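Revision sheet: C-alpha cells.
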Amino acid sequence: MSMIENIDAQISLFLNSLHCGILDFLMFHITHFYCSVFIYIGVIAAFIVIKKKQCWRDILLLVITVVIVIILVDVLIKPCVARLRPCDTAEIQNMLHTVKNYKVSSFSFLSSHAATSFLIVTFTHLTLRKKYLSILLFLWATIFSYSRIYLGVHFFGDVLCGMFLGVACGIVIAKLTVNSK
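Predicted:
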C-alpha cells in the first residue's frame, strides 16, 4: 500500500470501528435502496409542493443526471481504477467490522452511493432553498454515505471523492436550471 492508501485505510478502519448492535442494524438497512426510496419520494414531494407546476423539468433533469452519474461511476470509473473494497483488501480485511457478512461484488472507487446522494441533496438545496429541508437532506446523505464505510465496503477516500463528485454535479445542474429560466 502507498502512504496515501495506508492513511485512507487507517481512517476507514477507525470509522468502521465505531460500531454497536443498534448501529449494525441501522447501517445495514440505511445502506439499501429500499430505505432511501422514502427520501427520494420526499424530495419529489418537496419539489411538487414548493415549485408546483414548474417542478417536472427539474425532477426530470435530476433523475437523468443521477442515472448518468451512476453509469459514469459504475461502468467507467470503478473498472478503470479497479480498487478493491476494504472487505476484499488482504491487508485490512481481517481488521474490519462487518455486518451479516454484507459484501458487494464490484470495485470500490468511487462511492456511487455518496455521489448520487450528495448530487440529489446539493441540487435540492440550491433549487428549493429551504434551510431545514437542506439540513435534513445533508444529514441523510452523510449517514447514507457513512454506512458504506461502516459496513466495510468503501474506504473513506471512496466516499469523500463520491461526495465531491455529487456536490459538483449538483451545482452544475442547479446552475443549468437557473440559467435556463
